[in-house]
Amino acid sequence: MLKLGILGLGEGRSTMSAALQSPKWELKVVCDRNLDMCKHRAKEFDFHQYTTEYSDLLNDPELDVIAIYTPDHLHAEHIKQALLAGKHVVCTKPLLNDLSQAKELLEVSAKAGKKLFVGQSSRFFEPMKRQRADYEDGQIGDLVTIEAYYHADHRWFLEKPWALEKSFRWLYGGLSHPVDLVRWYMPDIEEVMGYGMLSPNGVKGGLKNEDTMHFIFKAKDGRIARVSGVYTGPVQPVLRDSEMSCILRGTEGCSQGDYMDLRYAITTNTGEEKVITFEHKLKHYFRFEGKSHHAGEYQNYLEYFADCIAQDKTAYPDLKEGIGTIALLNAMEKSLETGAPVKVADILQQHDLAELQGAAV
Ligand SMILES: NC(=O)c1ccc[n+]([C@@H]2O[C@H](COP(=O)([O-])OP(=O)(O)OC[C@H]3O[C@@H](n4cnc5c(N)ncnc54)[C@H](O)[C@@H]3O)[C@@H](O)[C@H]2O)c1
């Protein structure tokens, strides 16, 4: 069994649950610089090996993997330290919130010879897993276009002090989900354009950057896709709209993975129409109160990562694919600033990352 340490125990709570329930992992130690948070989680899970010092995880020779769930702007530094300490790394989304340390991370990771896996939870959610399997099975024919979005009433998130800093952007924190879903199917996005604004509720809540955004992508082969995100206002009932959705339109069929209600719908290449909900999996995905946690997805991705480590295979999204997604998000940011289309290749070149052009699964 692989030995895991977790850094950051807000969202890291779901990872604690995932690791404690997984037969493939032994949770060895957890870390949060806030002692009260450590004590709170220790009580919640009856798991008492905690520390407030990240260096205790880095210097623990028995740890195989460190899982990182600190605020977005700290990921780059925490990943670097873990790789330098000789650990494999899982880092939650967004992998980074700018590209300033991307080149350095590629170099550190190549030297360390350790794996970095991006915890893109939505890929590991039941409807999205089923959608991918049906797509690979040819049930919608060739993919023509994608529409993906993530809209949520995240006004509660504004209680976190780092959400009100200039460095926090919903573009990275929220849209990294639908953008990753698009790149899962259409890795080579060449150009993007979009508009964004800070909504009246966002202004009132103290947000500094756009919380309302719509974008159009063009892939190298000419196909197009669209993503959007709205984060500081009410959403429709989930029966009608699922907060996060991914729609694939193909030459012979069409499918939709919905986050809320664990719902999946497809019209197949034989004309069959199916709407599936995964009632028997509800307890795996939603194991605490409410539906705003991700323990089931994290357990799925931790087990996938454990298998990749055991078989010495690349776990996707890896560092290269993850940085490619951040470069696309960076191009989207530039398009918001300039009001003009932006080429991802230009962003990669500006950051000395031209080697990553087209890098994906
Ligand atoms: N679906 C998903 O994959 C998903 C969902 C929610 C959040 N997240 C990600 O998880 C990350 C954390 O978000 P959150 O909502 O838990 O934030 P949070 O502020 O609630 O929790 C972050 C924790 O990290 C701790 N921390 C900060 N700096 C530290 C340091 N240097 N050493 C040790 N501990 C430190 C803080 O004390 C805090 O408890 C973000 O990157 C967010 O985008 C991912």
UniProtKB/TrEMBL annotation:
One of its GO terms (molecular function) is nucleotide binding. SUPFAM superfamilies: Glyceraldehyde-3-phosphate dehydrogenase-like, C-terminal domain, NAD(P)-binding Rossmann-fold domains. InterPro entries: Gfo/Idh/MocA-like_OxRdtase_C (IPR004104), Gfo/Idh/MocA-like_OxRdtase_N (IPR000683), Gfo/Idh/MocA_oxidoreduct (IPR051317), NAD(P)-bd_dom_sf (IPR036291). Residues 3-119 form the Gfo/Idh/MocA-like oxidoreductase N-terminal domain. Residues 137-344 form the Gfo/Idh/MocA-like oxidoreductase C-terminal domain. This is Gfo/Idh/MocA family oxidoreductase.
